[in-house]
């Protein structure tokens, strides 16, 4: 049976957490002296909000079909992404069949290529693509993971990202990823502090629990190499994540050769599209790629990235991305576990990753989510009606 055509596309900005998960109040672990590329400037070292990490806010995209069914998605990109969606991308959807996601993606990407390719434009394209998959699922009355081929296992298992892997262990997660606090500009003293924090956490969690370090693009090759060796020897680090600038493919390839055998190099949350990930994989930059489903091009592009990774024997464990990741990871053998970002300020409790924007967002119980928890049409979530939506542009 033909699907109702797309009638209208709308884009909104929302403030306060959710998909823009760095947009948190004071005292949150996610803004507590975390090493960044801006840490070389002392005035921007203590808080990522000080240099504008949360300046954009969440982008909400709604796609309405002729029968009134609405698909929606959230990602980052805020007001500038609203402009791109309303003024540029909407034309490639309105009047079209929602099942034509390949052609729609292709037209969104190539029509913006002269000012796009990565970053904000791909966030906007990802938001539209995810809203389209949500709409398709709602129209077909199937969860997205069924549209993607169905689950290859009965449950998702998670590691937790946050300041308290010891608490994450008690909550049933399989590992904990800590943010790195001190970058190269804080010298040897900072390096010692980084190692001390890691070894202290290792003493709390015991030998068998995975511990990882998220370096958020803050290091240079020499520092990353030294950190990797010490963290491996002194604290049994499992992986070193996003150590270098996402543009430094050559640095990642060298880092992968430099680290101790057994320590994994991971990256990719700020990479985009099949072409960016092909660079990472062809240049043997890492052991695990970590696309963010809301930033890499959406589900339509992730299928291509994941298939290439599968053919190369590379593991793919998406960054954050909440339900958009859960519906994908459960369909893939080369994604054996998933990330859960601990958005509780402590973080001493499991709270939904994109709270308060989504309703019905599943959370890990004992570090796991059953496939059956995803059994609702589309991505299985609703937009919280109590959140004020601002629509800065129309078309
Ligand atoms: C904790 C990291 O600095 C960042 O905020 C999140 C991230 O990179 C990840 O979850 O991975
Ligand atoms: Mg990361």
TrEMBL record:
One of its GO terms (molecular function) is L-rhamnonate dehydratase activity. Pfam families: MR_MLE_C, MR_MLE_N. Binds 1 Mg(2+) ion per subunit. It comes from the Bacteria. The record marks 292 as: Increases basicity of active site His. Mg(2+) binds at residues 214, 241, 269. InterPro entries: Enolase-like_C_sf, Enolase-like_N, Enolase_C-like, L-Rhamnon_dehydrat, Mandel_Rmase/mucon_lact_enz_CS, Mandelate_racemase_C, Mandelate_racemase_N_dom, RHMD-like. The active site is at residue 319. It catalyses: L-rhamnonate = 2-dehydro-3-deoxy-L-rhamnonate + H2O. Residues 155-262 form the Mandelate racemase/muconate lactonizing enzyme C-terminal domain. SUPFAM superfamilies: Enolase C-terminal domain-like, Enolase N-terminal domain-like. The record marks 339 as: Transition state stabilizer. Its EC number is 4.2.1.90. Substrate binds at residues 22, 48, 339. Keywords: Lyase, Magnesium, Metal-binding. Its cofactor is Mg(2+). Reaction proceeds via a syn dehydration. Belongs to the mandelate racemase/muconate lactonizing enzyme family. RhamD subfamily. This is L-rhamnonate dehydratase. It comes from Sphingomonas abietis. The gene is rhmD.
